[in-house]
Design brief:
Blueprint lengths: L30 H11 L4 H7 L4 H10 L1 H27 L1 E11 L2 E11 L3 H11 L1 H4 L22 H16 L13
Antiparallel strand pairs: 1-2
Helix pairs in contact: 1-4, 2-3, 3-4, 4-5
């Protein structure tokens, strides 16, 4: 069953200004790693994360190189999001069940119960997963190969338009020429 967990440090408070009392000589504060992770999880680009810290993108990329904790958290945020989406898509393709709370009323009494709910597999999600994971087996395309006689390569010859026309006319003439005997045609006067 799919369980998504918030990455460490990703809380709603991350949208507030970052307390940056302990910046180092490069202007980096360790609290930035958690904020950057949360932003990366939400799909933010390097430029967007950099603007959050009021620096340019080049400086942010330098920070990623200098500070391993920042790099690790940003990469986890980006990859964690991708893995969560991929896992959700696979779950949707194969179907899944989950516990849900159902509330109804019977004779004026409110009844609450926990029930198992099953989500049927989604055919489109299955097609999407298979065509992307096994394109050689599941791609929606045909592969046509053209070859010459006996499976040999097609012979290509360089012919001018005039030569082609002469060949066509010669072929037509061969089909319509009859053997004529003397006297078959009389001259009309």
């Amino acid at each position: 069953m799919l369980t998504l967990q918030k990455p460490p440090g990703y809380e709603p408070k991350d949208v507030r200004p970052v307390e940056d009392n302990n910046r180092d000589e490069n202007g980096y504060c360790p609290a930035y790693a958690d904020v950057a992770q949360g932003m990366a999880l939400m799909g933010a680009s390097d430029r967007q994360i950099a603007s959050r810290f009021e620096i340019d993108e080049k400086r942010f990329k330098e920070w990623l190189f200098i500070y391993p904790d920042l790099y690790a958290k940003v990469m986890w945020g980006r990859e964690g999001c991708i893995h969560a989406v991929a896992e959700s898509l696979v779950m949707r393709a194969i179907g899944f069940s989950y516990k849900a709370k159902k509330v109804w009323q019977h004779n004026g009494t409110v009844i609450e119960a926990e029930v198992d709910t099953y989500v049927l597999p989604d055919v489109q999600a299955g097609i999407f997963v298979l065509t992307n994971r096994r394109p050689d087996q599941w791609a929606n395309r045909s592969n046509h190969e053209v070859s010459g006689p006996g499976g040999k390569p097609i012979q290509v010859e360089d012919v001018t338009a005039r030569e082609l026309l002469e060949r066509k006319l010669a072929g037509l003439a061969d089909r319509f020429v009859l053997e004529a005997k003397p006297g078959d045609f009389e001259r009309v006067k």
